[in-house]
């Protein structure tokens, strides 16, 4: 296969983008009133019961359908701003978020616990066995699960300082690597081994490790689709008997190096109430380092949705790892309401206040992009 450059509106570079002008929708008074009425109608519904019918938006709904299509064919980025003007409590904001998300796609489970709503907050000093998004600090660039076509973030509370959403076009990175290092781009097309962690792999009859390689880039009709789930690659390299070769480490490091260049990435500074929607097939995301206060209830707190979009063409089959069967089994473990932010924070605050609890230091992700530049880095 001869790799070709991709001509697409998604092949943007950060310095060329004014996201407030080209990627942001400022909600109008009429749209907010319609959203508020839908929130009131859904006040007693579980998140799993909120869909486009329950959260009907006769005026704004058609506009959201257009945005769903533009996320596929345009820049791959949408920011909704203005929700803070409704002054909703956190759980009501979560229901509004799920309702708006339902006009773009179908909510899917995000882990073995089956949660439809992820709480992105640093609780590394409070809870044991936490995932990367529950640690503080910066994150390097990645995509989310392969059943997720749109990854969405809602900012309940920003950090004291820092914590910008740092995004980059995978299409622009693809084209740059084709021009500069086609040998390494070919490695990314060949892909990496993937493996679930011990929790997500529980009770899954499918192989916990993918039988073949998952391509970082796969050609689609007129474009390219990207998968970059760093944690799964790390699991396979460390626990699955498939350590990275020198050139595989180099290819990954080069992709991260380009993404972290000011010539490519774009920082979005979140305000309270902002909702960001990213095409998970063409946009990689991370975040900058940040500072938080000590009380958990005042820390940077984002909510995450994973949305599957049935109206979009299927992702290349060779890139699928978390399949409908896997996320369906995850969903069976869900405890309805447990992921709502008010209940989540009450539990975390109670754990933080336990007098017998041994203090734990806050931690940051235990890897960074530099490790990938070393041969057999994760052997």
How would you explain this protein's 3D organization?
Strands 1, 2, 3, 4, 6, 12 and 15 form a seven-stranded mixed β-sheet that branches. Strands 5-13-8-11 form a four-stranded antiparallel β-sheet. It is globular. 28% of the residues lie in helices and 17% in strands. The protein contains ten helices and 15 strands. Helix 2 crosses helix 4, helix 5 (170-180) crosses helix 6 (182-190) and helix 6 (182-190) packs across helix 8. The chain starts with 18 loop residues before the first helix and ends in a 26-residue tail after the last helix. It has helices at residues 19-22, 29-41, 61-73, 90-102, 170-180, 182-190, 230-239, 246-259, 324-331, 341-353; strands at residues 24-26, 77-81, 106-107, 118-120, 139-142, 150-157, 161-162, 165-169, 217-220, 223-226, 266-268, 275-279, 283-287, 290-291, 301-308. With 379 residues, the protein is of the alpha+beta class. Mean pLDDT is 91; it is low at 372-379. The chain has one domain: Clavaminate synthase-like (Double-stranded beta-helix, 4-Layer Sandwich). The relative contact order is 0.22.
List the main descriptive attributes of the protein structure presented here.
single chain; alpha+beta; Double-stranded beta-helix; 4-stranded antiparallel beta sheet; 15 strands; globular; disordered C terminus
Concise account of the structure shown:
With 379 residues, the protein is of the alpha+beta class.
């Amino acid at each position: 296969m001869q790799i070709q450059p991709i001509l697409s509106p998604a092949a943007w570079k950060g310095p060329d983008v004014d996201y407030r002008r080209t990627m942001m929708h400022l909600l109008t008074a009429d749209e907010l009133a319609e959203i508020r009425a839908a929130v009131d109608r859904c006040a007693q519904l579980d998140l799993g019961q909120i869909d486009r019918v329950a959260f009907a938006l006769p005026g704004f709904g058609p506009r959201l359908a257009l945005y769903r299509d533009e996320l596929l064919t345009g820049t791959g980025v949408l920011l909704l701003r203005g929700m803070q003007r409704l002054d909703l409590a956190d759980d009501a904001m979560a229901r509004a978020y799920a309702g708006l998300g339902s006009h773009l796609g179908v909510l899917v489970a995000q882990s073995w616990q089956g949660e439809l709503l992820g709480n992105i907050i640093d609780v590394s000093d409070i809870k044991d066995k936490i995932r990367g998004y529950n640690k503080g600090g910066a994150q390097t660039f990645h995509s989310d699960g392969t059943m997720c076509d749109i990854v969405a973030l809602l900012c309940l509370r920003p950090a004291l300082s820092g914590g910008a959403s740092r995004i980059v076009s995978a299409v622009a990175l693809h084209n740059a690597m084709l021009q500069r290092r086609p040998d390494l781009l070919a490695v990314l097309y060949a892909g990496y081994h993937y493996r679930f962690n011990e929790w997500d792999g529980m009770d899954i009859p499918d192989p916990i490790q993918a039988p073949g390689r998952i391509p970082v880039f796969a050609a689609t009709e007129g474009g390219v689709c990207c998968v970059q789930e760093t944690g799964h690659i790390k699991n396979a390299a460390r626990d699955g008997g498939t350590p990275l070769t020198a050139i595989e480490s180099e290819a990954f490091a080069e992709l991260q190096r380009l993404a972290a260049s000011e010539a490519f990435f774009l920082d979005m500074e979140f305000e309270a109430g902002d909702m960001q929607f990213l095409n998970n097939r063409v946009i990689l995301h991370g975040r900058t380092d940040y500072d938080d206060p000590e009380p958990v209830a005042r820390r940077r707190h984002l909510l995450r949705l994973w949305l599957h979009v049935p109206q979009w063409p299927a992702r290349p089959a060779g890139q699928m790892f978390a399949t409908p069967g896997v996320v369906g089994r995850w969903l069976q473990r869900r405890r309805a309401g447990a992921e709502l932010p008010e209940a989540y924070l009450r539990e975390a605050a109670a754990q933080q206040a336990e007098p017998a609890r041994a203090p734990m230091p806050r931690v940051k992700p235990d890897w960074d992009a530099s490790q990938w530049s070393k041969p057999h880095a994760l052997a």
